[in-house]
């Protein structure tokens, strides 16, 4: 196994990955804020980190993947106005689980709910208050950004040009506009609140993640992941909170996936209305195409989204199925082995899935060119890491169509082409196409 190298956002370099505990990898990924059905953009970190987990497991590591559910958040209170924020969050959490289940990549090992982790958040805020890293103001608690000498290092920003994006909220209470909320005092129009030593209220978004990540993985775990849009202020603030409270870094490696971009280059977002819900994309294209689509781009790069790229992925899925159907069970030819090696080396080099896929396509082309049966083992292993081994589960043609194809082969051998054409039409009416190869006929499902 080649040395594993991953890009680290904090050091802005690809560096060797060495887990804190030999053989074990802890990954925390910021999950969805459950105020609406998740969209195809939210599915990218879910797919990228689920596949990364598969690859690390294939490389021999025991992986613990934590993806939280942000079910206490401003966006949820705002979306639930007039109704229950708790019911909305419950409904959308269930929808998120159902939608991502359809990707068939398994569940993360832990999916903590912010609402079930309040005690850990209160504890961490108390530590920050005791250490002078935070202060109470009007029932809110704010983090003193300028007391953290390391602030800005993760996102590479200059402290004086930062904006926490909290708008006018708490502006008269903050000692410094740069400070951000750890706790927000209960407001009359919010229907959930918890007790804390400094007053009733609810946690800010950033402390939720620090507390949940530390509770499940400890301080200094291996990989913190999420979308690039979360780098600032969310991840910068998570890092600052843990550094200040615990005197140690939250995570050793920070990995960020790129965003989706419309094929015309326009930014995609729910508010612009140009991004589809995940369930709709799955209805239209299926999970195989969605996974191959995400794997076709390097996780750090933006990825073009639209019907065209997903349709291209669906065509790729079909080509893989066709190739899988032609293979036989058993060892693959040694001559193709270097391509299998290249596939795994590409993944070990900053999880370069497009480069790995290129090696896989070369393997498939090589297999197609070979005369005689080709063993499936290498392709199964590659597809397994991509969560696509199911592409081997191709139901064969029904016996009745197989009999028609055999009758057609006999008709052709007897030069009865009219009869052969008639039989071909019957096979196609059954949803399959027939193709003649040097070794006999081949039936493939019509697209
Ligand atoms: Zn987070």
Describe the structure.
It is a single chain. The chain is of the alpha/beta class. It has three domains: 253 residues, Rossmann fold (3-Layer(aba) Sandwich); 115 residues, Isoleucyl-tRNA Synthetase, Domain 1 (Orthogonal Bundle); 47 residues. It contains 13 helices and 14 strands. Strand 9, helix 6 and strand 10 form a beta-alpha-beta unit. Helix 5 packs across helix 6. The longest helix has 20 residues. The chain is elongated. The model has no long low-confidence stretch (mean pLDDT 94). The chain binds zinc ion. The site of zinc ion has 4 residues, from helix 6.
In short:
With 447 residues, this protein is an alpha/beta fold.
Please identify the structural class as seen in this structure: alpha/beta
Percent helix range: 40-55%
**Helix and strand pattern:** EEEHEHHHEEEEHEHEEHEHHHHHHEE
User: How many helices does DSSP assign?
Assistant: 13
CATH architecture of the largest domain: 3-Layer(aba) Sandwich
| Shape, per Cα inertia axes | elongated
User: What's the assembly state of these chains?
Assistant: single chain
Q: For this structure, what is the CATH class of the largest domain?
A: Alpha Beta
Count of structural domains = 3
How many strands, what sense, and barrel or not for the largest sheet? Answer: 4 strands, parallel
Strand order of the largest sheet: 4-3-9-10
Q: What are the low-pLDDT stretches, counting only 5+ consecutive residues below 50? A: none
